[in-house]
């Protein structure tokens, strides 16, 4: 009987040891699950933070591009205005030369022309032609 008791005691001890090991293993698994869940939560938080940072950076870049676009468009307007004013000035000068040439042409068509008038018209024509060959229309609009 003693051996039966010892066998039962050993079996009980073995069960107790197995139950302890199983309990310990379950506790370790639960801790591992908790660690994974905690890591997953941190991942979601980190991902949300990174997404927010990317969105913020892209928004700043887009705003900077919009500002640059507006500035460039305003520069285009200024250049167009300056070039247009220059062209208008050149047109005025050309029209003045044309008027002077018309006047000289009218005078030359009159009969008779005195030497004094001929010299005067020749000087005027030379003057007009020199001013015309001076700073005239530059390169066309870009």
TrEMBL record:
InterPro entries: NCoA-4 (IPR039947), NCOA4_N (IPR022174)
GO BP, one annotated term: intracellular iron ion homeostasis
GO molecular function: transcription coactivator activity
Coiled-coil stretches noted in the UniProt entry, renumbered to this chain: none
Domain of life: Eukaryota
Stretches assigned to the Nuclear receptor coactivator 4 N-terminal domain: 40-126
Pfam families associated with the record: ARA70
Protein name: Nuclear receptor coactivator 4 N-terminal domain-containing protein
Origin species: Mugilogobius chulae
């Amino acid at each position: 009987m003693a051996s039966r008791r010892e066998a039962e005691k050993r079996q009980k001890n073995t069960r107790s040891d197995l139950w302890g090991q199983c309990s310990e293993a379950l506790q370790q698994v639960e801790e591992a699950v908790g660690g994974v869940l905690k890591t997953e939560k941190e991942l979601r938080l980190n991902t949300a933070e990174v997404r927010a940072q990317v969105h913020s950076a892209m928004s700043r870049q887009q705003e900077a591009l919009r500002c640059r676009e507006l500035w460039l468009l305003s520069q285009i307007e200024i250049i167009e205005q300056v070039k247009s004013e220059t062209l208008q000035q050149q047109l005025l000068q050309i029209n003045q030369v044309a008027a002077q040439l018309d006047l000289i042409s009218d005078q030359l068509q009159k009969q008779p022309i005195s030497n004094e008038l001929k010299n005067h018209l020749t000087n005027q024509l030379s003057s007009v032609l020199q001013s015309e060959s001076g700073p005239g229309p530059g390169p066309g609009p870009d």
